[in-house]
Each structure stands twice: as structure tokens, then as C-alpha cells.
Amino acid sequence: MSASSTAAPLPPVSYGPVALVGAGPGDPELLTVKASRRLEAADVVLHDKLVSEEILGLVPPKAKLINVGKRCGDPKDRGLQQDEIHELMLSHSRQGQRVVRLKCGDPFIFGRGAEELEFLARHGVVAEVVPGITSALGASSSCQIPLTHRDYGVTQVRFVVGQSKKYDLPDLNWDELARDATSETVVMYMALKKLDRICARLIEHGTPADTPMALVESATNSDERMLVGTVGTLPRLATSNGAGEIGPVIFFLGPTAAFPANLETLAGAGKCTDKEPLLEGERAWKRPRTVAMVAPSDC
User: Fold this and answer.
1) What is the CATH number of the domain that holds 250?
2) Looking at 103, 133, 163, which one is the last position of a domain?
3) Residue of 34, 49, 70, 193 marked active site
4) Of 133, 166, 187, which residue constitutes the final position of a domain?
5) In sequence order, what are the residues at sequence separation of 6 or more whose Cβ sits closer than 8 angstroms to the Cβ of residue 98?
6) What is the value of pTM for the model shown?
7) pLDDT (tens digit, 9 = 90+) per residue, 99-147?
8) Active site residue 70
9) Catalytic position from the list 27, 34, 43, 48
10) Are 155 and 222 part of one and the same domain?
11) How many domains does the chain have?
12) Structural domain for 261, as ranges
């Protein structure tokens, strides 16, 4: 009998667990309890470039932090390619390490989480997905832009991406977007670099130029800022106000994009008159107020 036929079989590879974890839009207080626990237990954290420093500060010192991200829409910022991220996850898992793939927002909303799950499944690695608050929900709450509102006739929400894989306009149903612009909220991710063309395309397909549109930068973070205009004015306002210089930008299109201004009008009718105005025309940046949960008192 040959030596090869009598050799003991190799022990099965013991893979470390992998978790795709949503970091949310930036505010560490918006992390889920499960996300925090996965970070606390991690041996290695592969994180997106735009995950906030406050959230990265929750990772224990013993864990290895690896920045695998890049700024979306910037072909010059190469970062790591997706296949390189795949191999890093697999390599650390094969070493028996607890791997957290920490992704901005939610892993399954424009986060390529499904691609990473497919790669791990092909290599016999079972992974879990921990949801995160996507930027649309974080910015909506932080800036008080409701995604639906019966009195505004807005009964549906649509999430779209603002560019294709080739950094061109995405293949969207522009006729449908234009038709429903006054009865839905459209949230646009990764759309800043194509904003001029997006707004022009919407108007070309019939969207009224005065349809409200809002821009939120660095949603839920301490440097968050918001700009409100219309489909016809927002591209110019975004350029003149240096949108995108601080952090990632997300857009809200539809009637409820004007809701914060309505709130300010309503608040002005009350007895508290020392609040700064939300807008000065259409050009003012405004960091939304943080409301402390304390006992009520007179103004």
C-alpha cells in the first residue's frame, strides 16, 4: 500500500466568522447593539474610507484596522479593488480570525454586500449581515425631511444611485421619475458629480423646474449641513456653496424636500422667536439643531 493511500486526511479548515456590518451614516449613537458587539469581538476590521472616526474609535485596540475603501465617484482614488477586499476577508477568515467588514450605511443598499456574500459562499464561508441605518433614513431624520407625508401627496419612496459603474448617468426610467416627481420622494445616492446632468435630464423628461430638492452633506455627523433649492437651482447652489468638500452627499427630490422650511415657518408662529432661520433665500447652509432630551422649560 502506498504512503499516499495511508496518509491521514487533512483536518478541515476552521474558518473564522465573518460579519458584514452596517456602520450607519456616521453618528456612533445610531449603531445597532449587534453592530457594537461585533466590533467589540473583532480580530480584524476591514472598513470603508468614510466610516467616521468616532465609530472606528469603538474598535478595541487589539483588533487590526484595515482601510479598504475609497471615495465614491473618484476614479483617481483607487483604494482597494473589490476582488482585493474579497481576498482579505477570506485570508483573515482562514486564519481563524473574527472578521468584520464594516460598511457605511447598510450593507445591502448600494453597499456591494451581496457581492461579498457571494464570494464568501463560493469559498465555503458562512457570513452574517448586520443591518445599518442607511444614509437616506439618517439624513431624513437628522434634517427632518420626511420621506412620506399624506398632506403633501407623497405616498411612495424610491432609492436610486446617481452614477453607473462607468461613472456615467445610470440607466433609470427617467420618464417615470419625471412623472412621479410631485408624488414621491426620490433619494439619490452618489449623485453629486452628475448633479447638473441629472437635473437637466429630469427637466428634459418633464419634471417641473420648481420641484423642491435638498442636498445633505455628512448626514448625522457634527459637520452636517443642508442646502434646499429646486431641480432648476440646486446644481448652481451646490457648486457655489462647495458641496462635497466636507463629506458624502445625498439628495432628496420631491415635495417633502421643502418640509424643513415649513417647520421653521410653523415654529416662527410660536412664542420662541430666537431660533435662527432655516433659509436665507435658497443659499444658506444650516446645521440642523440637536435637541437635548431634558425637562421642558419656557424659552
Assistant:
1) 3.30.950.10
2) 133
3) 70
4) 133
5) 16, 17, 19, 41, 42, 43, 44
6) 0.84
7) 999 999 999 999 999 999 999 999 999 899 999 999 999 999 999 999 9
8) yes
9) 48
10) yes
11) 2
12) 136-268
